[in-house]
Design goal:
The complex is a heterodimer of chains A (232) and B (217).
Chain A: E1 2-12, E2 15-23, E3 26-31, H1 38-45, E4 53-59, E5 64-67, H2 80-86, H3 91-97, H4 113-127, E6 131-135, H5 143-155, E7 160-165, E8 176-181, E9 184-190, H6 203-210, H7 220-231
Helix pairs in contact in A: 2-3, 4-5
Chain B: H1 4-20, H2 22-35, H3 45-64, H4 69-89, H5 94-139, H6 145-172, H7 189-197, H8 199-206, H9 209-216
Helix pairs in contact in B: 1-2, 1-4, 1-7, 1-8, 2-4, 2-8, 3-4
The chains are: A alpha/beta (232), B mainly alpha (217).
Chain lengths: 232, 217
């Protein structure tokens, strides 16, 4: 199972996006500053935009899902329970996972953006598609909710998960790192080898690297463990 | 037409002419063909054709019930073409400028602001529909009769909520009533001629009184 980007070029006004590479099974993090082209690439991967040249080729991927940057753009039903059903899921399980039990009859627009984010993320993860593209899944979440979102993503056992995020504080365990800046996608490689060359690495990872530690992954706990190892 | 005052005047009188009689509608259509950039001002087929289809269905039902279905179809289609022309040609702030020019800083400003918000709302509704279309595609929901009802309800609730938010925002910013702007307009020689020509369909629409009586009946 893999997704190939073959000489992908997409232009809109003065902005041009370019990217090549292969997303294999596992969790991929595409990081980079706001306005770098992450959301555009997410839409291209989901097939909602067409490239001007090149192609996105899916191999062995039978189902794909994109979680949009703004969770309210997913809403198609007037109740939270109806919204979950519109994803083809049972409301009870999803509401439990999203920590929204008892809110099934609420208007989804009455949920806070963080709650709505938890709901859509739970729906997306529980649908368990072969290819799951998450556009800024941690935005609008507090630290605890970000941690829970990371846990949901890590819990996905199989398939390809591509996370587009500028988050630099709470991150999940990932298998590969990519960077997107000024419309250019760059593969940094597999974790942990990719960590030293990661330009948008979070401050705690930079600190660990400066101290001579070699974290095994990109989470804060990985940096802390690595520092503990070298300091005894 | 560059001058929004003349553009709105022409659209108003032509719409009245088209609504009043089939002859007026045909004359307004000739005016539309002569003066506007024609198909360039029409929205994309995905928006325009369903509207035409809705008019056609209503006209067919009217004809089936013994009414003037064909006349209704012609008149409503011409009004739709005129609306598309005005919508495509109206730039941000023009409605407010015309309303203030016509009715002053108090009542004119209020009406102009409502009109501006209405026009902006149309663009926002188009975006909302596009978002819902994408959401449905992502969820694997096929567009159909069963999906239209919750979508329409959602859209209406969203727009009511957005209006409420805008109203609150106006209050927070200290808006009470009226405002001052100095509208400036650029009139081209062709604008005046086209506006005068727009009176011809109005005159024609008043001649065949039979249509007016059908309408009233």
């Amino acid at each position: 199972m893999r997704v190939d980007l073959e000489g992908l070029v997409f232009a809109r006004g003065p902005f041009t996006l370019r990217g090549s590479g292969t997303f294999g099974e596992g969790v991929h993090l595409v990081s980079g500053p706001v306005g770098g082209g992450k959301s555009t690439l997410a839409l291209l991967l989901a097939g909602l935009l067409r490239p001007e040249s090149g192609a996105v080729r899916r191999h062995g991927v039978s189902s794909a899902l994109l979680l949009l940057q703004f969770p309210e753009h997913h809403i198609t039903c007037p109740t939270v329970a109806g919204e979950v059903r519109s994803w083809g899921l049972a409301p009870e399980d999803v509401l439990l996972r999203a920590d929204l039990l008892g809110r099934g009859d609420d208007d989804p627009f009455h949920l806070s953006r963080g709650e709505l984010r938890r709901l859509t993320l739970a729906c997306a993860v529980m649908q368990n598609p072969d290819l799951l593209v998450l556009d800024e899944p941690f935005s609008s979440l507090d630290c605890v909710a970000k941690g829970e979102a990371c846990w949901m993503i890590e819990e996905r056992g199989a398939g390809i998960t591509i996370i587009f995020s500028h988050e630099r504080a709470v991150l999940p365990r990932v298998d590969a790192i990519w960077e997107m800046e000024d419309g250019v996608l760059t593969a940094r490689g597999s974790v942990p080898d990719a960590i030293p060359s990661w330009r948008h690495a979070p401050p705690y990872l930079r600190y660990a690297l400066r101290e001579g530690a070699r974290p095994e992954n990109i989470r804060l706990s990985d940096a802390r463990e690595a520092l503990c190892r070298i300091r005894g | 037409m560059q001058d929004p005052r003349l553009r709105l005047f022409a659209a108003a009188v032509l719409s009245l002419a088209a609504f009043a009689s089939t002859a007026g509608a045909v004359a307004a259509l000739v005016w539309w063909l002569l003066v506007t950039p024609r198909t360039k001002v029409l929205p994309r087929p995905g928006v325009f054709l369903p509207l035409i289809a809705m008019i056609a269905v209503t006209a067919a039902l009217s004809a089936w019930g013994g009414g003037a279905g064909l006349s209704y179809f012609i008149r409503m289609t011409v009004i739709l073409l005129l609306a598309a022309w005005v919508y495509a040609g109206t730039e941000e702030g023009e409605m407010l400028a015309v309303a203030v020019w016509a009715l002053g800083d108090r009542v004119g400003f209020e009406i102009g602001l409502i009109a501006e918000m209405g026009l902006t709302g149309l663009a926002v509704i188009r975006q909302d529909i596009e978002h819902m279309r994408v959401a449905m595609a992502l969820k694997g929901i096929r567009p159909g009769v069963r999906s239209i009802v919750p979508l329409a309800a959602n859209l209406i609730v969203t727009e009511i909520r957005r209006s409420d938010e805008i109203a609150r925002l106006l209050v927070v910013r200290g808006y009470t009533i009226g405002g001052r702007i100095c509208p400036l307009f650029r009139t081209e020689p062709g604008d005046v001629l086209a506006s005068i020509m727009a009176l011809i369909p109005v005159l024609l629409s008043t001649l065949p009184l039979r249509d007016v009586f059908i309408l009233l009946g």
